[in-house]
Amino acid sequence: MFLSVVVPCMNEQDAIPALVARLEVVIAPYKERAEIILVDDGSTDATWDAIVAAQSRVPQLRGLRMSSNRGHQVALTAGLEAARGGRIFMLDADLQDPPELLADMMAMMDRGYDVVYGSRREREGETWFKRASASAFYRLLNLMSDVEIPRDTGDFRLVSRRALDAVLAMPEKARFVRGMFAWVGYRQIGIEYTRAARTVGETKYPLRKMIRLAMDAMTGFSTRPLRLATRLSFVSLGVAALMMIYVLHSMLAYQTVPGWASVIVAISAFSGVQLLTLGILGEYIGRLYLEAKNRPLYFISEDTETPVPVQLKTRA
The whole model's pTM is what? Predict the structure, then answer.
């Protein structure tokens, strides 16, 4: 197998026909040496039925149905583990990232690169808040991370087998795939493109999930938040020392304390710093707890390559 195309899907029943049609054209030059893997991440609509219908007419297509919704990054991991190709192409089912860019990515990989990622030059159809929050996310991530992660990128990329094997060797449960590929190194390069507006369905990354992904990214690739908590505690101690000096000076000068407002402000500020520090520590402790349990990352309930539904346990 030369090429594997991996696409995680969540409630994308309307997008599947167009997705498969465009992928058929993209993989046509490789004929039987290519495969398409669509991973249904516990959809609640007819996404799986659409995948099965597409597989009946496209022999290179394989469908995997997860036993429950595990999130985009885990669904992507499931598809990557099932991929058999020497080169692996990743994209989302919404077609905002053009699969036709594969030819250019292939050309770059022929020049010796192991990872060719799409870099978003423009983001059509997105609100100013979405663009601003995405920009802030990547800049804050690189500020806090020990690994340089390319800005304005997603999981849209073509990777070599050795780069993928390196990522799959990483056992963590809270996965941030684009960061994991940045961490493994090898030769990497970006290709700029214009990200199209979504034409069907709705985004699967509301603000809540974006914040969760950002937390996974920052705590998974850096201990700087812990060092930030330590610095904040020193700042708090410094401010407290200055306030003690002010209080002592007031007592010696027989000056009455101006009022309760300063006390309330000080208590609120210190309480906020303490809670922030506890929150940062909690994020890391929570990750340790998840890793220590060592539960399987996901289960596959159905595979179109098998005649009957199966229960496959993986990543124990």
Answer: 0.66
